[in-house]
Amino acid sequence: MSSTKTRRRIVPAAAENGDTADKQDQLLLSSAICNGEDLGSFVRKAFASGKPETLLHHLKHFTKSKESEIEDVCRAHYQDFIVAVDDLRSLLSDVDSLKSSLSNSNNKLQNVAVPLLTSLDAYVEAKNKCSNIALAINSLNTCVQLMELCSRANFHLTKNNFYMALKCLDSIETNFQDKTPSTTLKRMLEKQIPAIRAHIERKVSKEFGDWLVEIRIVSRNLGQLAIGQASAARQREEELRIKQRQAEEQSRLSLRDCVYALEEEEDDEIDGVVDGSNGVNGISGFDLTPLYRAYHIHQTLGLEDRFKQYYFENRKLQLTSDFQVSSMTPFLESHQTFFAQIAGFFIVEDRVLRTGGGLISKMEVENLWDTAVSKMCSVLEDQFSRMQTANHLLLIKDYVSLLGVTLRRFGYPIDALLDVLSKHRDKYHDLLLSDCRKQFAEALAADKFEQMYMKKEYEYSMNVLSFQIQTSNIMPAFPYVAPFSSTVPDCCRIVRSFIEDSVSFMSYGGQLEFFDVVKKYLDRLLTEVLDGALLKVINSSISGVTQAMQMAANMAVFERACDFFFRHAAQLSGIPLRIAERGRRQFPLIKARDAAEETLSGLLKQKVDGFLSLIENVNWMADEPPQGGNEYANEVIIFLETLVSTAQQVLPVQVLKRVLQDVLTHISEMIVGALHGESVKRFNINAIMGLDVDVRLLESFAENQAPLMSEAEASQLKSGLAESRQMVNLLLSNHPENFLNPVIRERSYNALDYRKVVAISEKLKDQSDRLFGSFGTRGAKQNPKKKSLDALIKRLKDVN
After folding, report:
1. Domain named Exocyst complex component EXOC6/Sec15 N-terminal: which ranges (predicted)?
2. Average pLDDT over residues 264-288
């Protein structure tokens, strides 16, 4: 491919002043040709001016001028060529001389260097042999070291020392595999190293799988052991509380000569079993070595993340399997195993979390725990909803609370479990109340309402002192006849058991102060269950005075027992007695007590009514008042004295006073009722004097009870005869019209009904009203008392 040289642009020289235009055109044309420009403009101009000959002349002139330049250039180049040829001829002769000189020198060199080259070839050959021998020695040394590592790896494999075997394999790969001169060895290594690693992984995985199977059994035993420790610790706390309560009770009784010391037991051994300070891992078989070995081997194999995931998934599957509740076995029988398995699982996971070097994360353990709590809450909700026995529910609650105490030591939150227990508090107590209702019914049905007979001191302690229902701190002589029947200690035992069960359910449930809750359910037990059972028995089974008296005596003892119940509940709840006594309420069995006293009073009134029927034999128009009282009054007095002599052995003074006052009030009402009744048409003042004697006899009976009671109580007992006494006083008064005076009436006749006063006063017959008596007294002055009584009757009728 030829290239054209770029021509230098020729610029026409400026025309001199004397040059013609023709000369100027010639210069322009020469310049354009030299510059290789288009000559079309010159041709068009020449033809346009009609002078093409000028253009042709100029072209010819330009051609001639260039021919002379060519000749000059050729002449100059020819001279140079001749000079160069001469130089080449002289150089050729010099080259010939140099060639002969070089040939001579080469011959001399060949003659001298041939022996040296022979020696050099021998040296190079010897050196190559030495290098080959050294390379062979190095290869042999490498092979020897490699075989030693292989032998060491095989030894570790036979000893199941997989970590050292893997280290040998890593050293082989790093230092020898690429440098091994033997292709056979290299192929062997490339084949066997992955196979050995796969073998180690299988062996370790098998050991880990065996550990997963074994750890389930170990977890169950570990959970049972840990919960057993929590139970033992709780038992020690209960014993300390009992000692404290005994000290408080003796302090309350001013027994200040006793010295108490709390014995501390060493808990290090117990804590060490769970914490792992007494051995390799705390409990026989609780060995995490296979797990950590597998984890370490997988770390060495570069499979750490895969093993973590594998471990977590397998443990999660195990936990899910632990959640299965057998439908063939009652939950009451399997709940300990169920919860112990879960407790052991999380004790193991806590150890792995703390010592596993990141094998499982805290978040993963928390997720497993959240799942477990949710499942346990679901199982508890389901099982509690089916249970109809309070004792079963309490057993499971106690074990769950022990589970919570155990796992709380390891930092697991248990609030959700406690919430489930608290949620079923009402159901538990409802079941407990139902059980107590049945027990009360059985105890009351078995009672013969006879005073208890105690032969030994232990019987007295068991039936009296244990419930603090004694009336004196002095030990009585034996045999001892108690003022109550077997119902009292039997019911007290049921109530005490209820309190202990209630406190047991409320204890360790996350609520520190639960006395108010226990007190609420205790109130329900006493006011609804026990009071109702007693009312039922009183209304349906009490048929005699002896039974009614015994029931009334029992109610008085129950009043002291109720104080003990609330103090006992306060002590078990950890509440000081002074605080518990501040909120004391009225007697919770007041309905049953009132019903028992009313029943006793009613039966006594029936007995009294039998004697009061003799009031029909009273001579209402007697000529003289009876000196020793009427027959009915004497019979009633004998009955009441017999009653008091018997009742004071059984009934407390206050109960006896209330019953006697009720009976005396009834007697008083019956006396007034007899005067007011239809059977008595008329009576005279002598009959009223006889009633006055009767009332004085009854009042004397009431006053004679002062040694048994206080004088104030005897006076209050006497007030039961107020209506009959005031009626007799009014009829015997010389100024009966004073009844109309409000002040005197309020002071002396406040128990009288004015309607009865009118009716009875109209029946009073004066001595002057005898048959034919008016003939002898006609014109005589009217009796002032009769006149006052008539005025009273008239005024009262007007008011009516």
Report:
1. 58-227
2. 48
Packing angle, helices 183-252 and 390-408, rounded to 10: 120
Backbone angles phi, psi at 483, to 5 degrees: -80, 5
pTM, two decimal places: 0.67
In this structure, the strands spanning 453-454 and 480-481 are: antiparallel
Q: How far apart are CA 260 and CA 632, in angstroms?
A: 66
Percentage of residues in the chain having pLDDT higher than 90: 2
| Maximum alpha-carbon separation in the chain | 224
Q: What is the mean pLDDT of residues 159-167?
A: 76
Percent of the chain with pLDDT over 70: 86
- pLDDT in the model for residue 128: 92
Are 170 and 190 a contacting pair, CB within 8 Å? no
The β-bridge partners of 453 are 481
Given a cut of 70, whether residue 784 has pLDDT beyond it is no
- Cβ-based neighbours of 28, under 8 Å, separated by 6 or more: 12, 42
User: What is the mean predicted confidence (pLDDT) over 576-603?
Assistant: 79
Q: How confident is the model at residue 100 (pLDDT cuts 50, 70, 90)?
A: confident
User: What is the structure's pLDDT at 276?
Assistant: 45
Q: What are phi and psi of 764, to 5 degrees?
A: -70, 125
For residue 454, what are the β-bridge partners?
480
Structure tokens belonging to residue 758:
């009118």
CB atoms within 10 A of CB 228: 15
Residue 124: the pLDDT is: 92
Tokens linked to 375: 């499942």
Helices (H) and strands (E) in the chain, counts: 29, 4
pLDDT of residue 301 exceeding 60, the answer is yes
Number of Cβ atoms within 10 Å of the Cβ of 234: 16
Cα(518)–Cα(567) distance, rounded to whole angstroms? Answer: 12
Task: Please report which residue ranges of 253-326 form alpha helices under DSSP H.
Answer: 268-275, 289-300, 304-322
The vertex-158 CA angle with 152 and 160, nearest 5°, equals 100
Amino acid type, 734: N
d(CA 406, CA 412): 9
> Where would I find the beta strands (DSSP E) of 401-523?
453-454, 480-481
- Whole-number mean pLDDT of the chain? 79
- In angstroms, the CA 567 to CA 499 distance is 11
Please give the radius of gyration of the chain, using alpha carbons only, rounded to the nearest integer: 66
Element (H, E) at 684: strand 683-684
- Give me the half-sphere count of Cα atoms (radius 13 Å) on the Cβ side of residue 236: 12
- Tokens 């039966």 belong to 603
